[in-house]
Amino acid sequence: MAILSLALKSLFNRRYTAGLILISIALSVSLLLAVERLRVESRNSFAHTISGTDLVVGARSGSINLLLYSIFRIGDATNNISWKSYKKFAEHDLVKWTIPISLGDSHKGYRVMGTNQDYFRYYKYGNKNSLAFNQGQPFEQVYQAVLGQEVARELGYQVGEKIIIAHGAGKTSFTLHDDKPFEVVGILKPTGTPVDRTVHVPLQGIEAIHKDWIGGRQVAGLKISAEEALEKNLTPKAITAFLVGLKSKIATFRVQREINDYRKEPLLAILPGVALQQLWDMMGVAENALLVVTVLVVFVGLIGMLTVMLAGLNERRREMAILRSVGARPGHILLLVTGESLLLSLIGIALGLLLLYSGLLLGQPAIESRYGLHLPIGIPSMREWIILGLVGTSSLIIGLIPGYRAYRYSLSDGMSMRI
Amino acid sequence: MPQTAAILLKDLRFGWRKNLPEVLHIADLEVPRGERIFIGGASGSGKSTLLALLAGVNLPTQGEVKVLGETINHLSGARRDHFRSDHIGFVFQLFNLIPYLSVLENVTLPCRFSHLRRQKAIEAGGDLQTEAMRLLTHLDMAHESLIHRPVTELSVGQQQRVATARALIGAPEIIIADEPTSALDSDMRQAFLRLLFQECDDTGSTLLFVSHDRQLATLFERHIALDEINQADQEGQ
Question: pTM for the whole thing?
Fold first, then answer.
């Protein structure tokens, strides 16, 4: 104890350098913890991009490909599903609900998704959360749209705005469905999922804007106005994919097999949880790289501490000699110098935690509303305690280096005042 | 019971390494308890080496170092460290103080390491602070303005007096002063020595005063020229 109070006083005497080391350790520790917390939470939120859906069905391709275009709106479908096949499985005895998805158009870079009102009723994300509205309500008529939160925020749209849908998925498209504008009737709350970046319209709307199109082009001379289109049969001939909720989870594999073995059309049914896990594992490399970088940042902070402690040691040989003369044993000197490093890193860790929590308190609402990512402000998890323990242990090991040098000095110098 | 000598050296030899010539060879030296002894000698005569041997920091290559009846060169390193902190107080030439401790903390520093001196100090003064203040008062250092000042802002003479109080606290049997006055001017030197003698008398401590300044030798009961008793030099030449 006597030695630790000496270590504290010695550190306080060098409070400016010690303060700088503290800042670097605190920053690196809070960075490490923040990255860890973000990593765990984003993994969680990713795994819950979609929940409550038992099967995702699309044209036969790869499971990740299907997941990417149907849930993440990345890439394109290889093929469509006929309305007849969809109808067959939608009316299946074991199926409770389905959500049809029709993709292919966009609005200013955001994907437009045709669906029906069941989407707002059954689609769930996160911890079985339903979609909720920030403003307005679900669409009821053909030329109405519901925007994801990011779309509305980035483009500055309010309920009542008229938007024009472009053909194709590019950011700048030259072929616009400008004869049939959609009215924004609802804006969703943030979900932290691709829903935020989606423009939702009724399936009939998708059908209506393509009534005068054949094979991806507007047919010259064949112009059907918005009103005229409403008169026609707007039941789609095909959709891109559909989500399935079953009456009983036990039937999942049975229905999946039935869909995969469907003879009239090559279909693929996947379990979203499994595919999400596969997808996350693919991205695990980047995630680990991030973690490695932050671990290195902590290491750099500790090396900074080592440098300062070692650099100061030579000037302190007189101090060591005085301590020896008043009865300090070489072991005390080892304890003093190592204790200084340990104190620095422990205070640094405490400051890092303080920094993390104040950052979380300040940033949590903004992160939640902007990214839909809920960062809990709970006590550190077991994993985080282990990380902190590892930081403390490494600082102890690193602190032993100057400690051991001081120990050697005090053995060889004894009480002689050479400097 | 006859009291053992404060210091007794018998056929003491010391060389830094086996193949190097000896730097110190003292056939016989006895310092009775309570004596004030001046050890003179030019630099390089082996003064620092002798002190390191007395303190048990270095070990003789041959012979015995008896301090207060204990043959310290037969003790383990840890025991020697203990023995030193319990029984010997040191004052050095310059910069004796720990810069990040206050005057009082510097004075009571040996009591952090030696239980014995802590007890003795508490017995003498009631508690450590009071005893430290008592010693500082004797050394004319107890002014409020001085003891609350950072030790680095004290004059050299003031620093040496604080160091002396530190050497004296807990009444160690032996005080070793290694050129403590060489940074002081001659008036200060006299005053400092008077205070040092008085304190050693009060506590009954044996004073070993090492210096190259022969003018001071006359103030001591006994003086030894290290060049004369050290036979290693003659042998080496």
Answer: 0.73
